[in-house]
Write a structure and sequence with these properties.
The structure is a homodimer of 132-residue chains. With 132 residues, chain A is mainly β. Chain A is built from two helices and nine strands, in the order E-H-E-E-E-E-E-E-E-E-H. Chains A, B: Catalyzes the circularization of gamma-N-acetyl-alpha,gamma-diaminobutyric acid (ADABA) to ectoine (1,4,5,6-tetrahydro-2-methyl-4-pyrimidine carboxylic acid), which is an excellent osmoprotectant.
């Protein structure tokens, strides 16, 4: 059994940040669960464009307020506590936080922890990471 | 993109209960994500014995207070907001809630929604469900 505490990991090297978000990697590929699990905090007033071409991701809002726009359909959905979105079609999207958002995220295949967002908002597929 | 709201689903047939817990299935196997995602609420003062012999499960505490005992090692860990446990060895365990626990749970392989806890605390493997 693995037991980890977000409040300890947020100040460790399992917390990955850019200027406007921090993602604490509670579970990564090498934990052997077949998915990764992250608690991601998006700064109030920030906007993010992502497209996980090689991953499925689900995102559950624990706290905060914002919206998500599906760039394929143009539809926008409110994000508030209890709302989950799942990118079952690797949907390109824009995520906006009006108030700081805290989100519980699951990735399949699991993130290894070495990915960076590429210019198109994606993470590289696992086989490219292994090659690099 | 799938968008669902816990606060709507908790009063629908996606909410599965027994006397002392309710699990709202935000994502199930047929959503095609490769994992299932549940928000599970455990009644204050309840105790649960589970052993997911055929699944990996991670559980993140959103709110509440309790503890988990690993029945293989005898170790007990406090559960409070921010703590996650991951049953990477299909660990048999006892989960106790002192205050109502709200937990974000990921299962791999994904739960189909038709499972029931068997006498040993497990869910049946997917192939047995398909045969039944």
């Amino acid at each position: 059994m693995i037991v980890r505490d977000f409040n300890e990991l947020k100040n460790s090297d399992r917390a990955v940040s850019d200027a406007k978000w921090t993602s604490v990697r509670m579970l990564l590929a090498n934990d052997g669960m077949g998915f990764s699990f992250h608690i991601t905090t998006l700064q109030a007033g920030s906007e993010h464009q992502f497209e996980y071409k090689h991953h499925f991701e689900s995102v559950y809002c624990i706290s905060g307020k914002g919206s998500i726009t599906d760039r394929n359909t143009g539809e926008t959905h409110d994000i508030k506590p209890g709302v989950m979105y799942a990118l079952d079609k690797h949907d390109p999207h824009i995520l906006r936080s009006e108030e700081e958002l805290v989100m519980a995220c699951c990735f399949n295949p699991p993130v290894t922890g070495t990915e960076v967002h590429r210019a198109d908002g994606s993470y590289a597929p696992v086989d490219e990471l292994e090659e690099s």
